[in-house]
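Write out the 3D structure for:
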Amino acid sequence: TCWFPFGIQELLVEATGGDFPLDYGDSLLEVPGGAFEEEVVIRYGIALHGPWELPKGYTPCSVTVYLNLQGHHPNKELTLHLSNWYGGKEREGVKFVRAPHVLQEGESKYQFTLLEEGDFSDVRRGKLKIGQPLCLYAAALRDLDKKERFQVNAAHNVIG
């Protein structure tokens, strides 16, 4: 099971959009005006642990964000800003990953796939344009040398 220490929350988003912090600053959801024609409720959660399976050779370097747009399809892309625990210089090794929010039949782990899109040029936060209504999102780091791997794992142990 997934551990959502703050539970599943709801955002009330008006047609004018806005910036919505998700819990305690680990992430922010940017909704442009006109993304929705009417007021919508977006459900979200910040998961620290769960039955995840990342692509081979990758280590988690952020919390996992659950986003559920409740069946609404945005007219414009939303932007997820996600803090990550990797402060190293090799930014091209940090990627966004995405998984369906529901386990597939017969599976016991959420299968994350690498996304080519996303920007981690800011050391503290990555940005990802999203349009899919039901997904789990996280940041993952390509395997590094032992020293850098230790730094990421130490940050994860302190936070998670």
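The chain has one helix and 13 strands.
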